[in-house]
Amino acid sequence: MSLDEKCLLADIVIDNSQDLIHTRRQVEQVVKELSDERNHSVVKTESDSSAKYVLPGDEITSDQTFMRGHGTYLSTLNDDKQLMASIAGVVEPINRLISVRPLRTRYNGEIGDVIVGRITEVQSKRWRVETNARLDSVLQLSGVNLPGGELRRKTAEDEVLMRNYLKEGDIISAEVQNIFDDGSLGLHTRSLKYGKLGQGILIRVSPSLVERRKNHFHKLPIGANMILGNNGFVWISQVIAEGTESGGHVIDFSDIALQERETMARLRNCTLGLAKHKVMLNDTSVSYAYEVSVQLGYQPKDLLMPEVVAVIAEQTKLRLNEFEGMDLN
């Protein structure tokens, strides 16, 4: 081998070594980011204090009595089959079934979920709805309420008038009725509490931060209504009088008072601040954040500053921990 060839081979070896060092540094950076996210993750309780975070390729267990769930696979490299993580997330064991819940993901709907979505297309006998999922959801004409809550078989005339009910750009609340074979969701708005939404603010957060509860429609004592959609879409609006639900067929477009607009803006900024700091969203946490922002004398516009949001989130976590401690006692 000539001297030039030896020098060329040495350069290749050096380049490959540098690439390996660079790749290792990238992996270490990802692990550090996930560790930081874990440290600033949702408010910890007794049930999630021992949560196990994994990266793709990490071993979860070698016990073969466990069943493989979403986000896992069986390694066949060794004689002993090991259950490995295929995604980065939190290990969630349910009896003998082990799954990994991803830290960041699109919405994976379940039957009975309450969602907030936007109409994207009007098709034959159905609407396409953007729900933060991998595929657009479907709202069938047979799954909506007619004006006045009338229940009857839909006719060809109803199909012609579909755009009078819902059109592109309309915001709706609905419930997941079924899941199709391709993974898309089937929706319905047969209850008068669902349907077209009027004036309000729509914000988007991670679906994993919305806590699953029996009720996702909240009339907050601060003077605003909030719908915490399981799909990560949150709707904030003015207070609606009890018993005036119309399924979205009667909408009040009158001017909203300045005080109510300020309340909605403050609530919107508090909700986004909690989501940024990975605090689970429910009516309690959002109300606490709102009250803390008022007590500390911040204006709604101040809640857009990162340092202020950090203070609000930290104080909210402390109040939630105190509240959970009282429940345990």
Automatic annotation (TrEMBL):
GO biological process, one term: CUT catabolic process
Listed PANTHER family: EXOSOME COMPLEX COMPONENT RRP4, PNAS-3 RELATED
GO cellular component: cytoplasmic exosome (RNase complex); nuclear exosome (RNase complex)
Location within or outside the cell: Nucleus
Gene3D superfamilies the record matches: 2.40.50.100, Nucleic acid-binding proteins, P-loop containing nucleotide triphosphate hydrolases
The S1 motif domain, residue ranges: 110-190
One Gene Ontology molecular-function label: RNA binding
Alphabetical UniProt keywords: Exosome, Nucleus, RNA-binding, rRNA processing
Identification of the protein by name: S1 motif domain-containing protein
Taxonomy, superkingdom: Eukaryota
Keyword RNA-binding in annotation: yes
Main location: nucleus
Family classification: Belongs to the RRP4 family.
